[in-house]
From TrEMBL:
Residues 92-119 form a coiled coil. It is a peripheral membrane protein. It is found in: Mitochondrion inner membrane; Mitochondrion intermembrane space. One of its GO terms (cellular component) is mitochondrial intermembrane space. This is NADH dehydrogenase [ubiquinone] 1 beta subcomplex subunit 7. Belongs to the complex I NDUFB7 subunit family. The lineage of its organism: Eukaryota, Metazoa, Ecdysozoa, Arthropoda, Hexapoda. The keyword Mitochondrion applies. It comes from Acromyrmex heyeri.
């Protein structure tokens, strides 16, 4: 609760929308460009494997491997510990990347605010 008040109520102009699109160019600050993230499976593949909509993200290929392993080894799903670990690692890595993007957006908004205040003064 305290973080919400400290960030979204006291400084709403420098906090990015958590569910919104980035307001700055993703290539801004990268003179040599930046590797574009691509989802490893196409939408058709995800539909063919019947991957649930909430799992259709950058870790869909790991989810597919885990689900296939569970199907093969049922009821002994403990044999799929390696696949589960890989899926969880992918999920954590994706989360960290999204949080880094959020933090980058926040810092760029603060920078823009400082520049506007310097010009106004």
């Amino acid at each position: 609760m305290g973080n919400y008040i400290a960030t979204h109520i006291t400084h709403p102009d420098t906090m990015p929308k958590s569910d919104g699109k980035p307001t700055f160019d993703p290539m801004y600050g990268f003179p040599n460009g930046r590797k574009i993230r691509e989802i490893p499976l196409s939408e058709e593949d995800m539909m063919a494997f019947k991957i649930p909509h909430d799992k259709r993200d950058y870790c869909a290929h790991k989810y597919m491997e885990l689900h296939e392993c569970k199907r093969r080894h049922y009821p002994f799903m403990l044999k799929c510990a390696h696949e589960r670990h890989q899926y969880n690692e992918c999920y954590v890595e994706d989360y960290v990347i999204r949080m880094k993007e959020y933090e980058r957006e926040r810092r760029l908004l603060e920078r823009e605010k400082r520049i506007r205040q310097a010009v106004a003064a």
